Amino acid sequence: SYCDLSDWILILKALSINDIDKIDLITKPSSKQIEHAIHKLKELDALDALGYLTEIGQRMAAFPVDCLYGRILVASEMHGCSEEVLIITAMIQAGQITISSKKKQDQIDAIQGKFKSTLGDHLMYLKIWQEWYDEYDHKRDQWCNEHFINSKSMKLVDDIQFQLRELMYRQNMIIESCNEELTKVQKCFLF
């Protein structure tokens, strides 16, 4: 069966374990799986041509998320939209944000339609966060009920975004908003 080893290899490389083939494992991954993961990490600029960790890869490894999202977070600093990208990444990591109901689907679609963006689903997450965050703490659960948004998931998003923000600060990354220049956010997600 196929298993993406990219995250695992990135962590090993960050720990200065470069010779992946020499690690004793109960079940060794196939060389094809390892090659695929290394190729993916090279495409994300996490590894250089010789397979050594780059500065970008070192930064990516600091985030406890899929290596693709680690790369997106690193790119967000370069594009000047790290505030938005860390929120969107937290929303994605939290899982199911919206509540669905076959009986109320028309009502849900009408209410959640205001969150849709012509620039894509990632920006829909950002709109949901912004509206939720702008509510007073004691009114957030009510807001979630009215908008068919999972309240527990939004609290998890808040925890995740806080953790990602702290990890970005530890790496001396600049956290800034692109304000209304949302095409910058789109560029980060084009890996």
SSE map:
Blueprint: H1 6-14, H2 31-43, H3 55-61, H4 67-79, H5 82-94, H6 105-112, H7 121-134, H8 140-147, H9 151-170, H10 183-188
Helix pairs in contact: 1-2, 1-3, 3-4, 4-5, 5-7, 5-9
Q: What sequence of helices (H) and strands (E) makes up the elements?
A: HHHHHHHHHH
How far do the termini sit from each other? 25 Å
| Backbone CA Rg | 19 Å
Bin the strand percentage: under 5%
Report the sheet with the most strands, covering strand number, pairing sense and barrel closure: none
Number of strand elements: 0
Percent helix among the residues?
A: 55-70%
Alpha-beta content class? mainly alpha
User: What is the 3D shape?
Assistant: elongated
Mean pLDDT: 93
Helical stretch tally = 10
Describe the structure.
The chain has 191 residues and is an all-alpha fold. Helix content is 58%, strand content 0%. It is built from 10 helices and no strands. The longest helix is centred in the C-terminal third of the chain and has 20 residues. The relative contact order is 0.14. The model has no long low-confidence stretch (mean pLDDT 93).
